Structures are given as C-alpha cells and as structure tokens.
Amino acid sequence: GAVVSQHPSWVICKSGTSVKIECRSLDFQATTMFWYRQFPKQSLMLMATSNEGSKATYEQGVEKDKFLINHASLTLSTLTVTSAHPEDSSFYICSARDQATQAFFGQGTRLTVV
Amino acid sequence: GQNIDQPTEMTATEGAIVQINCTYQTSGFNGLFWYQQHAGEAPTFLSYNVLDGLEEKGRFSSFLSRSKGYSYLLLKELQMKDSASYLCAVRDQRAAGNKLTFGGGTRVLVKP
C-alpha cells in the first residue's frame, strides 16, 4: 500500500516556540492532505484540509494563524504550530489522498509543550 | 454536518466474535471506512464500503446499509492483539477534499 511518512514522531518544545511537522507521500502524488489532532482517549478531529498549491481549508474553531499549513508540492505538506502552549500538547496525524479511494495515514507526531 | 455514533467500549473473550455498530447521518455520503488504532499509533485501514452489503477480508468483515445509515465491523476469532480502538469514518462528497469525519471510536478489550 501507499506510504505516508510523518516527521518527527515526537517533539518536546518550550512554551512560546514554534514547531513544524512534515507529512510526505513517498510513492504517490497527494493532491489533498488532511491534518488531524487527537487528544488522549478521544477520536481524530479534523483540523484542516490542505490542497496542493492553494490555501488550506480550516475546520470551525481552528485558528489558521496559529496552525500554519503549507502544501507546496504534491508530496509534502507541513503543519507549523506557532507560539505553542501546553494546551496544544496532542497527537497530530496527517493523511494523504491520491485520486483513488482511501486516505493513508502518517505515523503521527506526539507534541508535548512544556 | 455529520453525526457518527459508535459504542464507547466493548469487551470480548479471545476466540469469540465481536460486532461494532456505527450509525451515521450525512447529506453527501460517499463511502464508509473502518480503521484500527492501537494506543499511541496512527490508524490503519481495515475496510471500505460504498455499496450496500458485506465485505469480507479474512477475520474482519464490514457491512453497510445506506438506507439505514448503518454499518458494522465484525471481528471473528478474536486475538489478544485485536485489543485496540476501532474508528468508523464517513466520507462526504460535498465537503472540501472529500474529507473523512470520524466517530468517537470503540475501544475493544480482548480478554483471555
């Protein structure tokens, strides 16, 4: 099956700093990528839909100036958490979709803000 | 919007069968997915239904009834490694990027 690589797997940062998470589709071109956030024992909550070459579509309640998404190529999307705070600590997961049916998930990034 | 409901937790015995139900309401249904997620890991794809009926894949089967807004995931011959959360997700063709909306997940605990 298709492979989506997400990096880093985990990151610890100080409050007030910014963190960038990368999501790469390794063997297919991902026209659309999705960014999710998951808190412990909860389901995945969609944050935004990222389309190559255009602005991301954010879900209601997600601050676009805080969670910056860039999808500059068909194989790479990045999520930058700016001015991170402890409440941003979560499991962030990307998924990538090609023209076919299913979306493939990255390994996830566990962010801890101290 | 979409409303996706599935039970929070289920417990079953090794070797038994467990059925996880999922009901949904959506205006632009374009497929239903089941994913398995172990703690601390990303979800892995299990099955996809877009037409009514049963899809069987080894020990796992998934059923869909579009008229009833209902699906179930059937896990047979349960193994200890099947202890995980199972996520039902619905794709909406009217949403940007054909996005998936996830239910709350069902935590399945398999006991010896």
Task: Describe the 3D structure.
- The complex is a heterodimer of chains A (114) and B (112).
- Chain A contains no helices and 11 strands.
- Chain A has 114 residues and is mainly β.
- The mean pLDDT of chain A is 91.
- Chain B is mainly beta and 112 residues long.
- Chain B is 0% helix and 59% strand.
- In chain B, strands 2, 4, 5, 9, 10 and 11 form a 6-stranded mixed sheet that branches. Chain B has a 5-stranded antiparallel sheet with strand order 1-3-8-7-6, with no helix packed on it.
- The A-B interface holds A 1, 6, 32, 34, 41-46, 49, 51, 57, 91, 93, 95, 97, 101-108, 110 and B 31, 33, 35, 40-45, 48, 87, 95-105, 107.
- CA-CA gap between termini of chain B: 40 Å
Most extensive interface, chain pair and sizes: A-B, 26 and 23 residues
Alpha-beta content class of chain B: mainly beta
Q: What is the radius of gyration of chain B?
A: 14 Å
The portion of residues assigned to helices of chain B is: under 10%
Q: Can you tell me the residue ranges of chain B where pLDDT is under 50 for at least 5 consecutive residues? A: none
Helix content of chain A: under 10%
Question: Which descriptor suits the 3D outline of chain B?
Answer: globular
Low-confidence stretches of chain A: none
Mean pLDDT of chain B: 92
Integer average pLDDT of chain A: 91
Give the SSE order of chain B as H and E letters: EEEEEEEEEEE
Q: Evaluate the radius of gyration of chain A.
A: 13 Å
Sheet having the most strands of chain A: 7 strands, mixed
Tally of strands of chain A: 11
The ordered H/E elements of chain A are: EEEEEEEEEEE
